[in-house]
Design brief:
By secondary structure, the protein is α+β, with helices and mostly antiparallel strands. The protein has 6 helices and 9 strands, in the order αααβββββββαβαβα.
């Protein structure tokens, strides 16, 4: 599987922020007054709909399930991973798990900034490899490139990572959310 081809395919079926129905976002938000939660959910719903449009992408919806010592279950738009080793404590939340050409891919979405996420990438890869019992697990990291310029450096460090530009500026998302709350 060629990650570059997947990213090219994704840009062919890209959707815009204004294409995301507000009702879809509000359906999964727990606190309608929390602008940060709404911003994050807006981006997650956008990416979910975007991936749904891309030929060859299928969601790993076999949830809930037990894999080794991990328990995976759907929570909101994402997937919560708990472990028996930690007495059922949540050890990770993926924004999505998909397949592309039969290769498992971790999906992470950051609505405005990475906020230190670069330091968590290696652990996410290790967990994904353990869950799928495969070394070829990849990751798509969606975020607005306008507020984070280091995506090429992250891709050099992690060859199975591809960064995808959400295509909006932080102020556009802020404008959308301020109209909701």
């Amino acid at each position: 599987m060629n990650l570059r081809n997947l990213v090219e395919d994704l840009y062919q079926c890209k959707i815009k922020l204004e294409d995301v129905p507000i009702r879809e976002v509000l359906r999964v938000v727990s606190n309608r007054k929390d602008q940060n939660e709404i911003k994050g959910m807006y981006a997650e719903v956008m990416v979910h709909q975007w991936l749904s449009r891309c030929e060859g992408v299928s969601f790993d919806d076999d949830l809930p399930r037990q894999v080794k010592e991990y328990h995976l279950e759907k929570e909101g738009m994402g997937i919560k991973v708990t472990t028996k080793k930690e007495n059922g404590r949540t050890i990770c939340e993926f924004d999505g798990l998909v397949y592309y050409q039969r290769t498992p891919i971790i999906v992470e979405v950051k609505s405005s900034r990475l906020n230190g996420f670069a330091g968590k990438i290696q652990n996410r890869f290790e967990l994904g490899r353990d869950i799928y019992s495969r070394k070829d697990v990849s990751m798509l990291l969606f975020f607005p490139f306008s507020s984070n310029k280091n995506h090429q450096a992250m891709e050099r460090i992690h060859p199975r990572l591809k960064c995808v530009n959400l295509g909006y500026k932080k102020r556009h998302l802020n404008d959308y959310v301020s109209n909701i709350t």
